[in-house]
Design a protein that fits this description.
This protein is about 25% helix and about 20% strand. The chain contains nine helices and 15 strands. Bound molecules: zinc ion (ZN).
């Protein structure tokens, strides 16, 4: 969720920073100095939309992976059991999970909803991004992604091109600063579903992305018929707070909704898109829950990265959406690398860590038993 590093303000409060030392500091360790994630546009590729053709429009399967945080180096905590269990490379465990989840789900599409890699230390963000793209490609399934607040780079336009150039990539966010759409079509080429992908960068669904969304909603409002759709983004909107508190939510909520600088205007636009069935996001690793506002389901994905925070409380996995495009209905379930699947009990909000298979990593039990 949050970047724990120094903010510009707190750093300047330390005093005595010369221009030269600022430059050195920003290149090496000052994450806040990297350009805002995905906002600068690229004009290399003009497309702002891609197409995914699926065989069976009564069963479109989308696997959401999120917050993989590749290359984050974490210190072992006091409750560390991963090393004892033989996990020396957390990213390798994440990759192993990804592959197993794809084998289990056989999805038509993988959607990675942000924080694929972790920051830009020593200008290495581009290398990390390239590794993320190759890892997604290795799944052998078409994929899309949206930018997360930790997906930092020195050269953002090149980053759009790198996402676009993945062999299995349907990313078309270059001209829109990370905002684009995906048209899911049936074997006959007719529209079946639409994905509205947005860049919530570091600040939430505000500024350029809110402008893009407003324009999109203007266009959609004019249309008598609209294909059912999902909105896909990293940081939740403030409306998620309403969804968590209006009595409609079901799932695990272990941290406050981190909507950053978005204060409600985004959902005013989203609700104008009459075809919108749901929004799904990441960012808050220890929440896996959804609730409904004005008929739109607001969903947190299941965090997927063992290098990201929160694995001690909520085990990592993915979320599978099975969509009947013909009936404009869908269902989701959280899914784990050992094949365990979980749907929350309707109307129940869980605010504590439980000894349940949808929260506890099975490896932890194995280490305890050994
Ligand atoms: Zn995040």
């Amino acid at each position: 969720m949050k970047n724990q590093k120094l903010t510009r303000r707190s750093f300047l409060k330390l005093g005595g920073a010369t221009a030269a030392s600022l430059t050195i500091f920003s290149r090496n360790s000052w994450a806040a100095a990297s350009p805002n994630t995905g906002v600068a546009v690229s004009t290399t590729y003009p497309e702002t939309s891609s197409e995914l053709r699926i065989k069976d429009t009564s069963r479109f399967k989308l696997l959401q992976l999120t917050d993989s945080h590749f290359f984050q180096v974490r210190k072992d905590g006091p409750d560390e059991y991963l090393l004892k269990a033989g996990v020396t490379n957390r990213d390798a465990r994440t990759m192993d999970d990804w592959k197993r989840l794809v084998d289990l789900c056989q999805p038509d599409l993988v959607a990675h909803t942000g924080d694929m890699w972790h920051n830009n230390p020593e200008g290495r963000g581009a290398e990390y991004q390239q590794a993320g793209v190759e890892r997604l490609d290795s799944l052998g399934v078409p994929w899309i992604c949206v930018w997360g607040n930790h997906d930092e780079l020195d050269d953002v336009p090149k980053g759009h091109d790198r996402f676009h150039d993945g062999k299995q990539s349907l990313y078309r966010g270059g001209p829109g600063g990370g905002n684009y759409t995906v048209n899911v079509v049936g074997p006959d080429g007719k529209p079946a579903w639409k994905l509205i992908c947005m860049n919530t960068n570091k600040n939430g669904l505000v500024e350029e992305s809110l402008g893009w969304l407003t324009k999109f909603a203007d266009e959609r409002e004019q249309k008598a018929y609209a294909t059912p759709s999902f909105a896909v983004h990293h940081i939740p909107t403030k409306a998620y707070i309403t969804a968590m508190t209006n009595g409609t939510c079901s799932g695990v909520l272990l941290e406050p909704v981190s909507h950053e600088k978005e204060t409600g205007a985004a959902f005013d636009q989203l609700r104008r898109i009459k075809s919108l069935r749901a929004c799904f996001c990441g960012h808050d690793h220890i929440s896996d829950i959804s609730g409904t506002v004005d008929g739109v389901e607001l969903i947190f994905g299941r965090s997927s990265g063992w290098s990201g925070y929160g694995w001690e409380k909520v085990r990592k996995g993915g979320k599978l959406y099975t969509v009947n495009c013909q009936a404009a209905t869908y269902a989701w379930e959280s899914i784990f690398s050992d094949g365990f699947r979980w749907q929350p009990e309707k109307g129940k909000r869980i605010n504590e860590v439980l000894d349940e298979p949808f929260m506890q990593d099975p490896l932890k039990k194995q280490v305890k038993a050994a």
